[in-house]
Amino acid sequence: MEIFFASIILFLIIEGIILIVKEFKRPQNFPPGPNWLLPFVGSSKYLKKLSQELGGQHKAFDYLSKKYNSPIFSIKLGRELVVVVRSYELIKEVHSREEFDGRPDNFFMRLRTMGTRLGITCTDGRLWQEQRSFVVRQLRNVGYGKSKMEEQIHVELNEILEIIRSSKDTPIWPGETNFIATSVINILWTFTTGAKIKRNDARLIKFLNLLQKRSKAFEISGGYLNQMPWLRFFAPEATGYNLVKNLNSEFYKFFMEVINEHLMTYSEDKSNEDLIYAYIKEMNEQKDKENSTFKIDQLVMVILDIFIAGASSTGITIDLALMSMLIYPEIQMKVQKEIDEILNEDSEMLKYFDKKKMPFTEAVLLEVQRFYSIVPISGPRRILKPTTLAGYNLPKDTTVLIGLETIHKDENHWKDPQNFRPERFLDEKNNICNTERLFPFGAGKRRCLGDQLAKSCLFTFFVEILKEFSLEKCESDLPSNDLLPGMLLSPKPYKILFRKRKN
């Protein structure tokens, strides 16, 4: 008996040693990177410290890329193999190859989707293909990307202009008052649920608060909790686990109230009124299929993905576009001159298509997206089968992160990337050019679902605000190009003085 127990102990010791050796062993011909300092932790602590010292994870990646003199490098976060790509050629390749279309199936990604592997953003394979195709098709059916969307944008635009007018020369910050983010959410809400929400509606206020809390919570939990999920059992508050879990529950209840209202009022003739009715129709048609991907929980996650994809990033980009006009008043004057030449008081409703008539204004908005790069690191992607990239071997299930800011700030291409210079997007004939290295919405099959709405809102809101108002600095709350780090980069608090322009 003693020999038996001794054998078991010896076996466990050997297995433990093998497991630890595997933790330190790099795959053959793997990209260069920092040593994997601790078993089961990897370089997580090192990356976190580096990010804090340099002011963001994207800056830590920039440092590591330079340290290893490579546009592709590796790092081990917890037990997860991660590869970071930071050149246009490699990023273009990742965007276009099917083996990079996967999403990691880890604790953090499941936590984002309420403990499931559902929705569109965080899924892959058949479920992702079916759901994305259906959502894109049905959103178009209810008017997304068409004249109906333009009309909804103008309804929200009029409310934005009224809010600015009512400020009566009192400086305000769009990011603090959320009047732009509220408009984007309301447009998405209309297409998803078929009804507009008033700005003072308790549901809309609650939803905005949930989105803001969620963003902060994921900034807290996105590090160690993903790499060492067992920490939630010992420090659920400090790791942000309890906060995210509670917010997920609130989101689920919030969306289920709307879905249940649709279930109670559903009839087949309503299936083209909004996305939820269309989804219910599809669920009913596929209810007898054992492998159907159309379920209530999946619908909840689809709705969450739509709002996350469209609301926060669009609001921040418009905020930065307005802020840049304060920092570069000479550019503001050129934009307004072009607007005045093209538009007048009797002009018909401004449409996104009209951007072709205003190339300098369009160039300014492209430069805002390049210069600020609010999504400095996109992804993450999961490699679906063993492959190679830049001559390195990448095992199946390796996570790939895409350094978008790198190509937006590449000196070899842009020459002076640290300068805000819209003219870089105009050729000698004043036509838009040089956009192939700009990826504010990603590229390929994983391109952002909300890009059409984002671009239309950005152009329409920006042009109409500058048509009616001149933007002036408030000396006590000056703007800065130094953005706050986070999952999305965002402006530091500042204020705009909106002055009514003279006709």
UniProtKB/TrEMBL annotation:
Heme binds at C448. Its cofactor is heme. GO terms for biological process: organic acid metabolic process; xenobiotic metabolic process. One of its GO terms (molecular function) is iron ion binding. The chain crosses the membrane at residues 299-328. It comes from the Eukaryota. This is Cytochrome P450. GO terms for cellular component: cytoplasm. CDD domains: CYP15A1-like (cd20651). Gene3D superfamilies: Cytochrome P450. Belongs to the cytochrome P450 family. Pfam families: p450. InterPro entries: Cyt_P450, Cyt_P450_CS, Cyt_P450_E_grp-I, Cyt_P450_sf, Cytochrome_P450_fam2. PROSITE patterns: CYTOCHROME_P450. It comes from Polypedilum vanderplanki (Sleeping chironomid midge). Keywords: Heme, Iron, Membrane, Metal-binding, Monooxygenase, Oxidoreductase, Transmembrane, Transmembrane helix.
